[in-house]
Amino acid sequence: MAASLALESSLLSRLENRKRHNQPRWDADIIHPDDAGDFFSSDYLSLSHNPHLRQKYLNILASEPLLLGATGSRALTGSTANHIGLEKYFAEELGVEKTMVYVSGYTANLTFFGCVPQSGDVILYDEYIHASVHDGIRLNRSRLGKALAFQHNSLTDLEAKVEDILNRFPKIRAGKATLFVVIESVYSMDGDFSPMHGILEIIETLVPRESAHVVVDEAHSIGLYGPGGKGVVRAWGLEKRVHTVVMAFSKTLNFVGGVITTNAIIYEYLSNHSVPWMFTSAAAHVNIIGMKFCFDIVKSAEADHLRETLMRLSHFFISHFTESTSDIPESTLSLLNSSTKNLNSRGFISPIFAIFSPDVVALQNYLNGKGYAARALAPPAVPRGKERLRVVIHAGNSEEQIKWFVKALREWALAQDRKAKGTQGRPKL
Predict the structure, then answer these.
(1) pTM over 0.85
(2) Direct distance between the N- and C-terminal alpha carbons of the chain, in angstroms, rounded to an integer
(3) CA-CA-CA-CA torsion for 397, 403, 406, 411, nearest 10 degrees?
(4) 389: closest CA among 359, 411, 347?
(5) pLDDT digits (tens, 9 = 90+) for 9-41
(6) Distance CA 345, CA 185 (A)
(7) Averaged pLDDT, 73-94
(8) What are the helix (H) ranges across 127-279?
């Protein structure tokens, strides 16, 4: 393979800069073992560790005549009876006019925000929204009126930003342009819930009905909440007040793919104007079959039991962690946003916990040595002072595993505290 020395030199410089700033390595060829227990994947219900589900899926595949590629993009030969049938099935299950199936949740966000908002429209998004939304906005920024963030979960800042937008963009106030408001039901980095009722009340009060379009990303809530695991929007009975929901199948459903709930006009527009839709090969038949299989699984009584187990273990983790680290300084190890994590949850609890440590890379390495697949999150991925491990509880965890994991966290924190005190007491040379 030919070498491009100038390019490689530039890339190496960027990589060395990561090392100098003690940023974690996310090299794609590094495998971190999780033999001590899974506390870091997005397989919330532990479906990947269920052998009878695996066999059931294989049995279904064995009876299907089509498994491989769809032979083209959806704009060409990729809109098969399987693809269209799955979209109709999801529309019926979710009680909407139309759904669109994508190869990933990332592609769904990229496509929607890169195509649907029109000239003069404004996108107002929570500052912690998924990166895929930002990437979609970047594709569309040249024709947008504006795209801006409001402070995370702040109803006060949201209201102020909406009023300013209405003053600066009279077409929105006149019902001739659209204000898109974009939130997540559960946020992936902090595991906190959106104050969705309050957000909808502000939008419905201030923005003309014909100018408002609320988008909710349910990547980290589909499969976990509501009847049949259909997400927070439906658990809270807000589906008639939300215009678009984006669902990723790569978390709780433990598969690939994404789904957008929408209407017939947006469906037709995306089909004819969206570049990612028209120039990406349609999902393979095996994926279409798998998406339906996993969706059916999370609707089952077995999944209800797994959800109950997950919520119980999540409560157990936060209780045991709080008790076990009560004598450890918060500046050494603590739960970020403990007072606001479940502020808007209306009785739910998220299995995502942000564990703070100022030297989170060292904590990652310590846990890796103990058999945990820990991955540190440090600036610029998260704000400085908010370095963390994104700890995830799973239905397949046991209380004993949680105790051992918390014990490892405590042992590391105590060692760090002793080290810090020893350094402070050492005379200067």
Answers:
(1) yes
(2) 53
(3) -140
(4) 359
(5) 999 999 898 888 777 777 777 777 778 899 999
(6) 10
(7) 93
(8) 131-140, 155-168, 170-173, 196-206, 232-235, 264-273, 275-279
